[in-house]
Specification:
- The protein is an alpha/beta fold and 218 residues long.
- It is built from 8 helices and 8 strands.
- α1 packs across α4 (63-78), α2 crosses α3 and α3 (49-57) packs across α4 (63-78).
- The longest helix has 16 residues, at 63-78.
- The N and C termini lie close together (10 Å).
Length: 218
């Protein structure tokens, strides 16, 4: 029986790609690079911020360009009034259901921790997360299991009773590295035709299907 659900953030709990497109395109433009489309960004996300920027820059990716775009992006985000980002439909309801059924909840993401905490406080204030582990440099980011292990250190729950819920190949690798089961959701940003991994415990298309995961095990 699953007793702890650890969630990815972007593309799993929250639809954040709209603000990424808006802010990253401004950062690219400020540094003389071409702006990208939504579909371009869907192919670029999945890693930490440096990796995303590297993917966005493609052939222009080098340490200096990454750092310049990153600085511009963080300056833009700091003053950005985000009226775009929202939880995906059904997320608050399923988190409430899991919480009401004594399932512990946590978040492990490559987004910076303060940003995750901002959106959780704004939209999911009634949900009590055991821990929120974003990317906190110099600690390693996903797919390293560092964040998940930090969460597991705060509970006595056995790994067989833990499941990671995400939307990308990076999330599958993260779960593998941590030695826990993985659920893939299909409302996120990955190219799901390319995800064919028998490590996945289950693939779901709507949040309510997580109710069926509680009693699943490998």
């Amino acid at each position: 029986m699953k007793k702890l659900f650890i969630f990815d953030f972007d593309g799993t709990l929250f639809n954040t790609i709209g603000q990424l497109v808006h802010n990253m395109n401004q950062a690219l433009k400020a540094n003389g690079f071409r702006e990208l489309t939504l579909d371009d960004y869907k192919l670029a996300v999945g890693g930490n911020l440096n990796q995303v920027i590297s993917n966005v820059l493609q052939s222009d990716s080098n340490p200096d360009n990454i750092e310049s775009v990153k600085k511009s992006y963080l300056d833009i985000v700091k003053d950005f009034e985000d009226n775009i980002t929202l939880p995906f439909d059904g997320i608050e309801e399923i988190l409430t259901y899991l919480q009401d059924n004594n399932i512990q909840l946590a978040i492990n993401s490559n987004r910076y921790t303060p940003s995750i905490e901002f959106y959780v406080k704004k939209f999911l204030n009634n949900i009590k997360f055991l821990d929120i582990q974003g990317h906190n440099p110099p600690n390693p980011s996903k797919p390293d299991a560092y964040g998940i292990n930090q969460i597991l250190n705060k509970t006595s729950i056995d790994k067989k009773d833990v499941v990671y819920v995400g939307d990308s190949p990076t999330d599958i690798k993260t779960a593998k590295n941590a030695g826990i089961d993985c659920i893939i959701v299909t409302w996120g940003y990955a190219d799901y035709d390319l995800i064919d991994d028998d490590y996945i415990l289950k693939t779901i298309s709507e949040p309510g299907q997580l109710k069926d995961v509680i009693r699943l095990s490998n």
